[in-house]
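thread from #wetlab-drylab

HS: before we spend reagent money on co-crystallization trials with zinc ion, can we at least see a predicted complex? here's what I'd submit
DV: go for it
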Amino acid sequence: MEMGSKKEVQSLLPEGEVYQCPSCGYQDGFHLSFKWGQEDPYGELYLICPNCHARYRMGLKVKHPLREIERPFPEPEVPPV
Ligand SMILES: [Zn+2]
Protein backbone atom coordinates (compact mmCIF):
# COMPACT_ATOMS: atom_id res chain seq x y z
CA MET A 1 0.00 0.00 0.00
CA GLU A 2 1.31 3.42 -0.90
CA MET A 3 1.13 6.54 1.23
CA GLY A 4 -1.59 5.33 3.49
CA SER A 5 -4.35 5.35 0.93
CA LYS A 6 -5.68 3.04 -1.77
CA LYS A 7 -7.23 5.93 -3.66
CA GLU A 8 -5.65 6.82 -6.97
CA VAL A 9 -3.37 9.85 -7.02
CA GLN A 10 -4.99 12.70 -8.91
CA SER A 11 -3.39 15.53 -10.81
CA LEU A 12 -3.53 19.16 -9.78
CA LEU A 13 -2.78 22.09 -12.08
CA PRO A 14 0.26 24.02 -10.78
CA GLU A 15 -1.04 27.56 -11.10
CA GLY A 16 -2.32 30.30 -8.82
CA GLU A 17 -2.66 29.55 -5.13
CA VAL A 18 -3.05 25.88 -4.40
CA TYR A 19 -4.86 25.55 -1.08
CA GLN A 20 -8.28 24.10 -1.84
CA CYS A 21 -8.96 20.39 -2.24
CA PRO A 22 -10.86 19.77 -5.50
CA SER A 23 -12.44 16.63 -4.05
CA CYS A 24 -14.01 17.96 -0.85
CA GLY A 25 -13.53 21.74 -0.94
CA TYR A 26 -11.32 21.87 2.17
CA GLN A 27 -9.57 25.27 2.09
CA ASP A 28 -6.71 25.17 4.59
CA GLY A 29 -4.03 23.68 2.38
CA PHE A 30 -2.44 20.24 2.16
CA HIS A 31 -0.13 17.89 3.94
CA LEU A 32 3.11 17.32 2.05
CA SER A 33 4.52 13.91 1.24
CA PHE A 34 7.60 12.68 -0.64
CA LYS A 35 8.02 9.69 -2.90
CA TRP A 36 11.56 8.36 -3.46
CA GLY A 37 12.75 5.61 -5.78
CA GLN A 38 15.42 3.18 -4.58
CA GLU A 39 18.47 4.97 -6.00
CA ASP A 40 16.92 7.96 -7.72
CA PRO A 41 18.35 11.27 -6.46
CA TYR A 42 15.09 12.95 -7.41
CA GLY A 43 11.85 12.37 -5.58
CA GLU A 44 8.38 13.72 -6.19
CA LEU A 45 6.25 15.88 -3.93
CA TYR A 46 2.68 14.83 -3.27
CA LEU A 47 -0.10 16.81 -1.67
CA ILE A 48 -2.53 15.08 0.66
CA CYS A 49 -5.82 16.62 1.75
CA PRO A 50 -5.98 16.58 5.57
CA ASN A 51 -9.76 16.32 5.40
CA CYS A 52 -10.61 13.65 2.80
CA HIS A 53 -7.07 12.22 2.31
CA ALA A 54 -7.22 12.62 -1.47
CA ARG A 55 -3.70 12.64 -2.94
CA TYR A 56 -2.46 14.95 -5.67
CA ARG A 57 0.65 15.41 -7.73
CA MET A 58 1.71 18.48 -9.67
CA GLY A 59 4.87 17.08 -11.24
CA LEU A 60 7.10 18.77 -8.63
CA LYS A 61 10.49 17.12 -8.14
CA VAL A 62 12.95 17.56 -5.31
CA LYS A 63 16.61 16.55 -4.94
CA HIS A 64 17.44 14.00 -2.24
CA PRO A 65 19.89 15.61 0.22
CA LEU A 66 22.19 12.58 0.51
CA ARG A 67 22.20 10.96 -2.92
CA GLU A 68 24.78 11.71 -5.59
CA ILE A 69 23.70 13.55 -8.70
CA GLU A 70 24.47 11.41 -11.72
CA ARG A 71 22.17 13.17 -14.10
CA PRO A 72 20.81 16.69 -14.45
CA PHE A 73 17.74 17.86 -12.61
CA PRO A 74 14.77 16.40 -14.49
CA GLU A 75 12.52 18.56 -16.57
CA PRO A 76 9.17 19.25 -14.90
CA GLU A 77 6.73 16.52 -15.71
CA VAL A 78 3.37 18.19 -15.39
CA PRO A 79 0.74 15.48 -15.10
CA PRO A 80 -2.36 15.75 -17.28
CA VAL A 81 -5.34 17.20 -15.42
ZN1 LIG B 1 -10.21 16.86 0.46
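DV: Residues 10-63 form one domain.
HS: ok that's useful, forwarding to the group
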